[in-house]
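User: Could you check the structure of this?
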Amino acid sequence: MRRGRAFLFVGAAGLGVALLSQIDALGPVAAAGVTVGTSVVLALLAHGGVPLAAEAVAFGASGAFAYEATRSTVPLVASGLLLTFVFGTRAMRSKSWRELVFHLVAAFAGGVSASWVTRANAGLETTLWMVAIVVAALLASMPWIVPSDAPRTFALRRAASRARGALRVRLLRAVITHRRLCELDLPRPLRQRVERAFDDVIRRAERRLDREPTGGLDRTVDQLVRVERAARQREELLCTLDSGSTRIDSDRDALEAEVAALVELA
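Assistant: Sure, the predicted structure tokens are below.
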């Protein structure tokens, strides 16, 4: 899922770079609309989840404002600022402050590099211009190499930071469980049901933190923990089967080699 969204982001980034490189030919209102639309769409793609989607839109709009305010004087810096805001919510999901800083630096450097490539190759023939756009899109997508938590994992982390006592422990268990499930290859229907269950946990946790009466959170988290354990056992069984079949194939090859040697001796 993340890989597919990354490829989609590269395509959208290429289109956005191409549009922004021709923005001076548009009127002020049209230019502002293109900038805001491009920035918000890229921010939503970079975020990729329902939790914090409103923050992603806000970051995208802020990036568009920063770009419009600086592109006439320092265009390279303007593109770097836009990409930094675009990846704002994804950077927030970093697992440490070091990853957060690296995420933002990679976003700024990617935006500057993408803008430099498009400006250095402006006015070339169509084929070379398209190659430059592809290169710029790849440079703008550099922050995808930085690992980060999934949106639901971060939403659970944020709720856990506000909670106290037994609720905090329960939500931290949910964080660990969601991280582990993200690493496993689940069937698509099961993955959708699990994500809906985590959305329910997030909603119930936020209601409980707002001191609204709610129940069922503890039971749902316990069920998700059992699902994670069962899914991990399934993964281990499949790995055992794969290693067993590999061993059988190697034994068969060795036996065939021995038979061929005996035939030659006879």
